[in-house]
Amino acid sequence: MVNRNNVIDINIKRLVGYLIRKIWIVVIVAVIFALGAGYYSSNYIKPYYVSSSKIIILNKQITESSSMTDIQVGSVLTQDYMVLIKSRPVLEKVISMINLDMSVDSLAKLITVSTLDDTRILGIAAKYGDPKTAQLLVDTVAKVSSQSIIKIMGIDNVNIVEEGNYPTAPAGPNVNRNIRLAAGIGGFLAMLILCVIYLLNDTIKSTEDIERNFGLVVLGSIPYENARLANINKRSKKLRKFKVA
């Protein structure tokens, strides 16, 4: 509530009570947001499929005499390999080989490269609206990037550990997650708006509000219920007098 000094006083207990009384509004808004998100996710977001592959970088043949330092250096260099896999020359060649109608930047957004901790194995994942194209895309990226890494980095070999899998079910959109997220956002916004309405409401709700806002001392008060009953009794008496007359 805004007092006479334009300072907002917050009574947490009253605010919580107000929100509890208005909880039905929060629930309705959350449900509306959830239904909207579910409808939009199901009808307007195209499903996509994800295929993944794994490659291992061999900068030298691992033998019993290979030192731990060699292995650690190979693991550190995987960061360089990750950049090379999504480099422009590699992606341009991939687009040319499988006749993709998209730019290099668009293709880069569909490719994800990750590394397994303490290994030289790189994971490559590709997402696309068609499962067959997603599989073809990740296999082509693995093949082209392997050749590029061998040529640029001058290493011995790059082996494909796992070829791209054929995805049988779409990986997204996650309709249930979108529904839960939208419901949470809707409920939060509803509570936020209710809090703002409560804080900006400068109507008098109690004797404490009069004393705090106007600096007046309240000598007495009539409970609303008693005043209402007294008013009803007065009307009843007037009605009886009218009938008697």
Helical segment tally?
9
Number of strands: 4
Strand order of the largest sheet: 2-3-1-4
Globally, the shape reads elongated
Largest sheet: 4 strands, antiparallel
Structural class: alpha+beta
Binned, the helix content reads 55-70%
Shape-level CATH architecture of the largest domain: 2-Layer Sandwich
How many discrete domains?
2
Rounded average pLDDT: 80
- Percent strand equals 5-15%
Query: Low-confidence stretches at least 5 residues in length (pLDDT < 50)?
Result: 61-66
State the distance separating the first and last CA atoms. Answer: 51 Å
Radius of gyration: 35 Å
Keywords:
2 domains, Alpha-Beta Plaits, 4 strands, 245 residues
Summed up:
By secondary structure, the protein is of the alpha+beta class.
Protein architecture, described:
With 245 residues, the chain is of the alpha+beta class. The protein folds into two domains: 12-39 and 175-244, no CATH class; 49-162, Alpha-Beta Plaits (2-Layer Sandwich). The protein is 59% helix and 12% strand. The protein is built from nine helices and four strands; from the N terminus they run H-H-E-H-H-H-E-E-H-E-H-H-H. The chain has helices at 12-21, 23-43, 68-85, 88-98, 104-110, 131-153, 175-200, 207-214, 224-244, and strands spanning 49-58, 111-115, 121-128, 157-162. Strands 2-3-1-4 form a four-stranded antiparallel beta sheet. Helix 4 packs across helix 6 (131-153). The longest helix has 26 residues, at 175-200. It starts with 11 loop residues before the first helix and ends with a helix. Residues 61-66 have low confidence and may be disordered.
